[in-house]
Amino acid sequence: MTDGTGAQAPRRLVAPVRLYRQIADALEERIASGEFKPGDRLPTERELAAFYSVSRTCVREALLVLEISKLVSIRVGSGVYVLAPAAPEAPAAAGNTDEPSPTEILEARLMFEPEICAAAAGNAGPDHIARISASLALMREEHRKAAETERGDRDFHLSIAQACGNPIAQEFLRGVWESMSGPLWQGLQKHIRSPILRLKWIEDHEAILAAIEAHDRRQARIAMRRHIENVIATLNEADFL
Q1: pLDDT at residue 97 in the model
Q2: Distance in angstroms (rounded) separating the CA atoms of residues 119 and 109
Q3: What are the tens digits of pLDDT across the range 62-121?
Q4: Does domain 19-82 have CATH number 1.10.10.10?
Q5: Rounded to 5 degrees, what angle do the CA atoms 78, 27, 59 make?
Q6: Strand, coil or helix: what is 66?
Q7: Would the pTM of this model clear 0.90, i.e. be above it?
Q8: Which of 18, 48, 120, 238 would bridge with 163, disulfide CB 3.0–4.6 Å?
Q9: 102-237 CATH pick, 1.20.120.530, 1.10.630.10, 3.10.450.50, 1.10.10.60
Q10: Residue 41 — φ and ψ, nearest 5°?
Q11: Integer distance in angstroms from the first to the last C-alpha of the chain?
Q12: CA nearest to 189, candidates 239, 150, 137, 136
């Protein structure tokens, strides 16, 4: 097709669909066709991963999309069950979810956040350290109250970015944490949040703060990398069955 001048019209660019969204769409089609009926338990993560030749993490993210869309109910320790169709006047909460996946978010954090933390260790003044310490105290308080909020965690990491002294790094990390406010990440958090896990994250953050207080760039880098790797390992081990 030409544009009237004889020149070939440019093709319309279409953004690629994330893999977890493709798996969610495929499962939604199988539910709509009646292959999986209301009350049915879906195949296990392992079985779905083998069927679609993807990772279990990808399957887990797809199942979260279906839960957000009110097509399934995830019952950790039991399985994932198909729900009865919602009333026509009650649209799915996020049927078109194609936000950054937890895997993508954590990969980005692992690429950059250890270096941001190392820079903060070299640059942090007393006020910076006081803000980071106050955020850790809030994390402990949220754990004590079994709160559903994670404000202390967010403030901790953003305070470190502020301490690094680079406004571009600050904006980058703020954008990452905004991605973590989306329904996909929050849905995952709902299923894996536990008192034991929160204590582990507090211990990780204590190690990070200690390195920053000591102005030890190397140890700050190591402590932040270890923390993010611990989060990744936890998510990889999570299982909806």
Answers
A1: 60
A2: 15
A3: 999 999 999 999 998 889 999 998 755 444 444 456 788 999 999 999 999 999 999 999
A4: yes
A5: 60
A6: helix
A7: no
A8: 120
A9: 1.20.120.530
A10: -90, 130
A11: 50
A12: 150
Q: Residues in the chain with pLDDT < 50?
A: 1-5, 13-14, 89-95
Secondary structure, 3-state, the chain:
CECCCCCECCCCCCCCCCHHHHHHHHHHHHHHCCCCCCCCECCCHHHHHHHHCCCHHHHHHHHHHHHHCCCEEEECCCEEEECCCCCCCCCCCCCCCCCCCHHHHHHHHHHHHHHHHHHHHHHCCHHHHHHHHHHHHHHHHHHHCCCCCCHHHHHHHHHHHHHCCCHHHHHHHHHHHHHCCCHHHHHHHHHHCCHHHHHHHHHHHHHHHHHHHCCCHHHHHHHHHHHHHHHHHHHHHCCCC
